[in-house]
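Why does this matter for the project? Reviewers at the last site visit asked to see concrete outputs rather than summary tables. In response, this paragraph embeds two records directly. Each consists of the residue sequence and, immediately after it, the corresponding structure tokens. Nothing has been edited or filtered.
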Amino acid sequence: MYAVIRNYLGTGAKQLFERLEERKTDVEATLRTVPGLVSYTLLNTGDGGTSVTVCTDKAGSDASLKVAREWIQKNASDIHAAPPIVTEGPVIVQIN
């Protein structure tokens, strides 16, 4: 398995996560299209937020980055949030 974490901070991050929460049904439907998706978590930190995507392989995680970027461009381009800080790598342990 492979995971990607996106941290959204700074200008526009709070507004972006307000939009994501307003449109969470659409966000969920969009992320479910990612090939090999194992889990997706979106959390609001109050001043921005974090998403954690786990896929069966790196290709799925790469696809999740593309899908997320496209969703933001289509649904939140008016917010002008800074790009996320991306951390990614192979999953060592996952407990469900």
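We now turn to the second protein, recorded in exactly the same manner.
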Amino acid sequence: MNTWNTQALRKVAGAEELHIAPRRDDGSLREPTTIWVVADGDNLYVRSWRGTSGAWWNTARISRAGHIRAGGIDADVTFTPVDDPAVNDRVDAAYQTKYGRYTGYVEPMISEQARATTLRLHPQT
């Protein structure tokens, strides 16, 4: 898998919001959905606030490809599901650190329902 260059990683990770547009079966992009993004080390992660019922997440889960825009970066990406509990624990901590001031919103992002939707973002070349 491809890795993020340092500048792009910093910009996307530092953005308050990310616009995500997974690819549909026909190759077209869904309308972008605004979500939160966090970093752990050299990796970027997203989750569905609605858990597995999130429409954007279901499209991403099936297609494994899409486009993101955040922090001045526009990038085609691939999505890799994350089921490693240790990684999910670190992603929980990243959500709490970055978005903890949004009480009532960060709690659903670290729930078991949301953890089940954790995706790692990989830049496409």
